[in-house]
């Protein structure tokens, strides 16, 4: 597929402002220090809201262009110009980056507004909004860059900001550890992305999207496969996909608005964006597509199984995110029209998952930061707005028509079944099973939180609704959860055609849709029957599967056994070798020289007769040597 990016002109030449505004805001908030404490949070909200308004203007302007020229490329300056390596600091605003900009800044603005209320009594609120704005700026650079080096800049910026936000309450050991875990696991994926970029330059001589995609068809099958696997490794790290998913649920140690921003609108969607943007590379190799689909299918099932066994409200939602991103990876792996379907599900997920994360924060706000769903129950009486908005998110994620999840998840399941051969049944069946499990664990979460008997702890006798600054974003996100799916399923596929190419019209099978809804209702009904009367307040003895799910299917234990412990033992061995071996050799040599010197020093007595005797002995030895040579004794 030949891509032509039109230069940015007129209004669209201002797309650099999208990144600049939140970046400048972050700099002001972080550099001014306590002088900005009183008004800094409002500057943070205003910066992201301004980027949203600008993004909307640019988006409308882009929509006015004909499909062939529906893009705007802006080269700001030469960034790297060494030999044959030329990298522009350039931005690209096209249909794909356009929808991401609206999602990041739109949902991001609501999360920022919510955070004003949520972080009201936190002494570090200004610093929090500085990091928040930095995160948004980095994410916008990631999706707006016109080459892989710019994408990598944003990629690392997002990683840094997420580390600062996850470990925001750094005095808590669990938060500090979670931040380090996220940072280290992301480094593994980032190394893959960096090597992929090096490989592009080595084989194609460029990192610019337009030139890389034009040359993708000329790559050998092996090169395309290796490059794709390295890109997939980077995507799996950022999006919490198998085998790099363990950091994502631990990221819940950050404040709840961070969870909403990372797990709904921005960071975890970066991997899906990377694969969708690199579609000419992934579409060029069937083995590569099979690997992506397999990762997506496996991850969505892992997320469902573990999510069903968790009791922490935010961790259930985190594993739900792992699962839903799995559906998106399944979509981008299937290729063709499923690229667009994955993006639609990504956008709808941004609404309903942000809605539920902020709803969870609202519940915590009214329940003294309690997160254990076993100690909730009956909250629908006390928190009507939170209950109704959370209900919209719950119905959307499990795919009840006519809410958004039904219009975005069902087509991906149908597309999986359309895959030729037995793999269609395998991946379609995995997606279908995931739908039933999603309905089960999300209904369990909803029922135990808002219905059934009250199981509160002593300090939570009087739950209360959150203030308007927190409930208004919830209401707007709930409306998005209801209507976004239908709106996007009717418009976004055509909108994305300039990026993914013209796709044949997708026809869904009625029996697949009916079976999926039946499975969903069965899963939800089972959860309702099991948990409507409450649950035990402490973990009960369980079978093999539930025990494994409670321990994250032993993935953490595996990482500890295979990577962490050998690393610790290797470090200890190297420290011992360094201390006893290398340092021992150096110290031993020094001791030998020092000891020998101290013994030789004793010969220096200071008496003239001793020195005269030494000279006489030396002279006699020299004369003796000459005589021995003359007489031939040494011949």
From TrEMBL:
Q: Which residues form the NADH-Ubiquinone oxidoreductase (complex I) chain 5 N-terminal domain?
A: 79-129
Known Gene3D superfamilies for this protein? 1.20.5.2700
Q: Which GO terms describe its molecular function?
A: NADH dehydrogenase (ubiquinone) activity; NADH dehydrogenase activity
Residue ranges occupied by any NADH:quinone oxidoreductase/Mrp antiporter transmembrane domain in the UniProt entry: 146-429
Question: Which Gene Ontology terms of cellular component type are present?
Answer: endomembrane system; membrane
Per the record, membrane topology reads: Multi-pass membrane protein
User: Where in the cell does this protein reside?
Assistant: Endomembrane system; Membrane
What NCBIfam families does its record include? NDH_I_L, PRK06590.1
What is this protein's name? NADH-quinone oxidoreductase subunit L
